[in-house]
Amino acid sequence: MTDLVGYQARESWMGDxxxxxxxxxxxxxxxxIVGLNPSPVSVKAGHYYQxxxxxxxxxRIGDAAGWNLPAGVTQFEEAALDAGFGLxxxxxxxxxxxxxxxxxxxxxGRDVLRAKLEERGVGLVICVFRHPVEALLxxxxxPGLQVARTASGARVFRMxxxxxxxxxxxxxxxxxxxxxxxxxxx
Length: 186
Known about the structure:
Elements: E1 8-13, E2 16-21, E3 31-35, H1 40-45, H2 52-65, H3 77-82, E4 85-89, H4 103-120, E5 124-127, H5 130-137, E6 144-145, E7 155-158, H6 166-182
Parallel strand pairs: 3-4, 3-5, 5-7
Antiparallel strand pairs: 1-2, 6-7
Helix pairs in contact: 2-6
């Protein structure tokens, strides 16, 4: 067995064991950042969102949350934990992209994700891409705060697409900034 690095973990997923990224939860999780699944690049590095697109999305969240990370920082877990943010994915099996995730994995992951959020009393879920919104609310919604809430009552925010027009992304991220400012005690 090889040693694990960073936030790598050995986890069972639907009957098979994988080296993946383990969930990152602060003692009190007021916010959860949820992605589809870990990429092989991120798993190899032992840190969430190590690809170019993931870095862009996490940098946006960090900026909205006021994490004040230096330009060269690529690892966000400690800043997230310090701010009461957890990190997890719907599917724990690493894959290159959404086309490699099966509908059965999404169904299974949805139930697991809902239980994790409810168990921790998470008040706000930031969905990095559309998939977690679909899993939690049954539809992808539009970027920004969703009208519907999770079964446990958490608010759901969908990030803008990583390649959305700058003015659209700025407006959506301003909405998140205001939401985080208002809900410091979520």
